[in-house]
Amino acid sequence: MVYPDPCKNIFSRAMSHFRNIIPDFTDNNLINIIRYGEDYYASSEINYINKIDPETLETVGRVNYRNHIALNLATAHPHYDQEGNTYNMGTAIMGLSGPKYIIFKVPASTTDKENPKLALSKVQQVCSIPFRSTLFPGYYHSFGMTENYIVFVEQPFKLDIVKLATAYFRGLNWGNCLKFDENDITVFHVINKKTGKRVSTRFYGDALVVFHHINAYEDDGHVVFDLISYKDSNLYNMFYLHNMKQETNNFIEKNKVFSPPVCQRFVLPLDVQKESPRGTNLVTLKNTTAQAVMQEDASVYCQPDILFEGLELPGINYSFNSRKYRYFYGSRLEWSPHPNKIAKVDITTKTHVEWHQVNCYPSEPVFVASPGAQEEDDGVILSSIICSDPGVSPFLLILNARTFEEIARASIPAPVHIDLHGLFIPAAV
Predict the structure, then answer these.
(1) What percentage of the chain carries pLDDT values higher than 90?
(2) What is the pTM for the complete model shown?
């Protein structure tokens, strides 16, 4: 069991001051919907999440992670295993054992109908990982999970703790506390889900920025994980208000050189022998060009295989999460950082198909499998669409996931903003 933050209990008076240094962030949860046990929450990347009624979408309560586990931040992109357990990651900036990343698990069966309790009350810590740099932890938005392992990418897009500590007093926002170190490396941590122990081999790669993982799985003694990366943090910077207020043509012209998203596959061999010849590629899989090269200090330098360029907000048939898979879906990015198409990518053939409508901007595509489906792409794609044409109402688009042909659309007679992420919640049986 994981105990609540001891600082809240032991040093409660001192913490009333430190909450100004480590901000007590807003509870504005506009990123994703998370399931813990049988409870659903609107979430972002802060310590507060809002419990919702999945039938009515009413907000029925606010939960603070810190009442259950010592976290200051947590992702809005958890993973769910076949048993319904939820895995997630958080950051403990302040703690008795020093700052660290924390991976935690919320068991599936936690809600007693006769004595209902929050699912988070049964949270369990899987492991903790110390920051590589105490004052500059890597920012992360998601992580990967296979059947037996968690994959955490510690990137050189970093949170400046000193700036964060003074942001409250200087009136700085969260974005001012992030920086990209192009001269640093990216470290890949592989953690055994059952034991909580990290694989001892040090895997690393070139500097990159990553927000979203696509999928991860194990294959013949390797961990394969796919993610969407950028060569720098320009994408983050271009969405400041002073840029967004430009006329559209000026915005596009000035940001034509933005770092496009690249779907990459990394392959990490698990059985690395320290006696392996230096300079050799340890990846033995035949269906990838990804490399993992043994270095003189017995670390392994990883270079990715390119799956696709120009796609973000990825989604898959989640029953294939942690398994070898063939298809993923996402928002297509070409001429602008604003997605204007939906795409389906076939990893095997490295081909794709698209849906597009003039002046329309789709949200993240969400895959919903057909009842009793056997094939990976047997289902539908859901996406919330807005249009810059005032004569076209926002609508929910439904596509055949196999052919990408439109099945139906449902107009929404109300203003809708560009959506980020969503979760399909089946009706109770």
Answers:
(1) 64
(2) 0.90
